[in-house]
Amino acid sequence: MENITNKQIIEHVKTMTAVQLKELVELIETTFGVTAAVASAPAAAKEEATKPSTVSVILKEVGDKKVDVIKAVKAIVGGTMSLIDAKKMVDAVATGPQKILENIDTAKATEHEATLKAVGAIVEVK
């Protein structure tokens, strides 16, 4: 087995998506019987206390997989949004960032952010 340095591992982790990172953390926790949240619990609690309770999800860039982003936007917005309306919203990113959702729970916004990033979009939650 080739010796891999910690630096090489970190460089690889930097290229991973949020979904891949979540899966990696879960695998490490299961394999080694540890919990990643324990070490960061005080910092996470402090950070959580300063976060707003509702935020907006803003699509900043579409990326290379436009069709996948359109489908993701339609699924996220739901309701009566058609694929045509989702396409118009995604196309409008060419003129500037577009709010996909407003005043939603931060946990839900984080899920939507991960979904959009998984298909190559650049998203901001604020």
TrEMBL record:
The keyword tRNA processing does not apply. Residues 56-126 form the Large ribosomal subunit protein bL12 C-terminal domain. InterPro entries: Ribosomal_bL12, Ribosomal_bL12_C, Ribosomal_bL12_C/ClpS-like, Ribosomal_bL12_oligo, Ribosomal_bL12_oligo_N_sf. Keywords: Ribonucleoprotein, Ribosomal protein. SUPFAM superfamilies: ClpS-like, Ribosomal protein L7/12, oligomerisation (N-terminal) domain. GO terms for cellular component: ribosome. Residues 5-46 form the Large ribosomal subunit protein bL12 oligomerization domain. The keyword Ribosomal protein applies. Belongs to the bacterial ribosomal protein bL12 family. This is 50S ribosomal protein L7/L12. It comes from Spiroplasma ixodetis.
